[in-house]
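**Reference record**
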Amino acid sequence: MSFRWVYAKPDDGEAVSRLRRELGVSETIARLLAIRGVTTFNQAKAFFRPTAGLMHDPFLMKDMDKAASRLAHAIRNDEKVLVYGDYDVDGTTATAIMYSFLKNFGVQVNYYIPHRFKDGYGISVDGIEEAHKSGAKLIVSVDCGITAVEEAKMAKKLGLDLIICDHHNAGPEIPDCVAVLDPKRPGCTYPFDGLSGAGVGFKLTQATLKELGLPMETANQYLDLVALSIASDIVPIVDENRVLMRLGLEKLNTDPRIGLRVLADHIKMGIGKISTSQIVFSIGPRINAAGRMGDAKLAVELMISESEEKARIFATELEAVNMRRRDTDNLTMEKAMGLIDTHYDMDKSSAVVLHDPEWHLGVIGIVASRLVDIYCRPTVMLSTVDGMVKGSARSIRGFNIYDALKECGDLLVQFGGHEFAAGLTLDAKDLEAFKERFEEIVMERLGLDEQDPELLIDADLSLGDIKPIFWKQLSQFEPFGPQNLKPIFVSRDLRVVGNATVVGNGHLKMKVAQNGNAPLDAIGFNMHKFLPAVRECGEGGLNLAYVLEENTWNKRTNLQMRLKDIKIGDEALKP
């Protein structure tokens, strides 16, 4: 796929020259900062040096005083507590954090993870009844609960106290319980509303420690789990999340908990160099696989393991589950693309809504994301479970999928999520009406022309500017993630040194040079179709869009371009 190259622009036009002067950096580095909203010396200092001291006071969150007081009371009085989680990475890491926190105080604590297919998302009647039967006095929900209005009433009726820790959008009514912690809830003035579910739970552990007269830094032992949640849940890695992610990666790479160390060893990922992308593409999917294919308790048990022997058993089971998930992914992807080829004209379709009653509910979100990448259309994939149509929605940049579903609310039994990803449930009789309404909303807001795939470029870059000092400064932009993606550069009028070739499974590989500078390696995964054009472009006219990264081969590490797109000659217009 070839893209339209669109250049990102700083909101503050004067910030680039100001940052160059105050920081003593190149125009490119200053531009990258300004594009990310970093426009002053102090903001740059916080960006490059995200320390624990930059975390926000947990008591700035609405209801935190009530939540910390109640949880501290449960600890002091050895009450039975049930931690109620969710089945994805964010929910299972949040569960592991809260469970381990209470367990360390000797509290009689248990956890409950709803089954994706039997219980669905959120606090359920079965979970509340289990807490009541177990003799629990307090339920702490993590990564769910903000819309559990009726369930909160049921808990209160049974004499159960409830603390909700969530980060999703609130409904029209806030549940009536001891405390509702959610930086997105109306009336909450917490300085940052982008925390993950595990992040909100982490803030509660900080506040509870302070309530108990203990150092809040004690909670830092859970930062490896917080980092997993942030990277996997597609929350913005800015502000407090940037601090939590940086510190969490340090914890993960120096002193991870037993379960994560064993899992990393099992998949041959060396502790010490784990990055955000490795969490997203290797660790996260394995933890997610448990909840997608069956019982997410397997993931929680791995993360709370206190012995290597048990951790190895759980890691092996997770890998087997993940292999089944991959097979199911591939079959679902093939069927979905077949349906698109049969029923859609992508030159006339603004959105994709697919339904197959046999699809596995645990993988359709993954497949929907892949379809978005391929067709650049908001995509909804639906299956049928117990007579109800359920599924996942994924979106493109510039289209809020949650808001679109809200406009379809009269046709939906339930929905929830955020700008780029959401889940939904509807009655089968409303499926066609939903499909028509959704496509109308997308067409009205985006049309067709605006859905041509875009590639957001950060800056043009000469190969001569890629020096050790530039790479050192660029490396300090990590950790990367939403709102701080890896910078995409464009280098123009390059020439191929030697022969461009194809390696592996259709990967384009070559060396390129510019204006007499030393050649640089370039790799384009699944870009073999560009080989003829690259070979025919001659001594110049080759324009590459790419991210810079380190590549280690035979114990040698070099910089390389990981290609995002290729254009020849005048095809690549300058900004």
Summary: The CA atoms of residues 490 and 545 lie 4 Å apart. The first strand starts at residue 4 and ends at 7. The chain is about 40% helix and 20% strand.
